[in-house]
Design brief:
The chain is an alpha/beta fold. The strands form two sheets. Strands 6-7-8-3-9-10 form a six-stranded mixed β-sheet, sandwiched between helices. Strands 2-1-4-5 form a four-stranded antiparallel β-sheet, with helices on one face.
């Protein structure tokens, strides 16, 4: 569904991604993993159009999208949940969700969002900044789901989240992927969570993809070589 070829990206004089190649299969949950600083977040931002690329190609369903803006990619039903959530703290929960309506071409928030995260309906009038970290993460995911995406990109959705919300987020990702057929691209540091929800893994090292396989083939040797601190 997503094909990235020979992707290079630079911050000023520093190159972050080096001739990176990545394939994301349709309808599966693919976990991108690696130590801090290897380029995972940069890769997702390039995929979403939030950072310019130096060279290379990005295709979605065979269509080149590397020259399209983030808004245009959202209109192609690519949903993005950034690291740190980036909700609007002074807007209400409902107003945060409505931010995505224009890109979605909709006038009302899909009821599906509230079915998956009932707390967002209960707290629709509360300001985003007054929510707990876990509730803010649910809001960030809900905002992406307003698009009714076919691809959902999540950057460490469990960072700083209480365990019960982590479990709920895992259940929602699994349901969206397995029941709704949503393609999921997930950057995740927690190995147990990645193994629970992921079908495929992609390991990154110094701006490259260095290993790709099914999740059940993520061996102790690969973990020691590319993930252990």
């Amino acid at each position: 569904m997503i094909e990235i070829k020979n992707l290079n990206q630079r911050y000023g004089g520093t190159q972050i991604l080096w001739d990176l190649n990545l394939s994301i299969p349709k309808g599966e949950c693919t976990c991108i993993m690696g130590r801090n600083g290897v380029g995972k977040t940069t890769l997702l931002k390039c995929l979403m159009g939030l950072l310019p690329i130096s060279s290379g190609t990005i295709e979605l369903n065979g269509q080149p999208i590397e020259r399209q803006s983030a808004e245009q990619r959202a209109r192609l039903k690519v949903g993005y949940v950034p690291q740190g959530r980036d909700i609007f703290p002074l807007l209400s929960v409902e107003e945060n969700l409505k931010v995505s309506l224009a890109a979605a071409g909709k006038r009302t928030i899909p009821e599906r969002v509230y079915e998956l995260f009932p707390v967002l309906k209960e707290m629709h009038a509360r300001r985003g900044g007054d929510l707990s970290g876990g509730q803010q993460q649910q809001l960030a995911i809900g905002r992406a789901l307003v698009l009714s995406p076919t691809v959902l990109i999540l950057d460490e959705p469990n960072e700083g989240i209480q365990p019960n919300i982590v479990n709920q987020i895992g259940e929602v990702i699994t349901h969206l992927n397995q029941q709704d057929g949503l393609t999921v691209v997930l950057v995740e540091q927690k190995l147990g969570f990645a193994r629970k929800v992921g079908h495929q893994f992609r390991l990154m090292e110094k701006g490259h993809i260095v290993a790709s396989d099914k999740m059940e083939n993520l061996s102790d040797e690969l973990i020691k070589q590319h993930l252990a601190v």
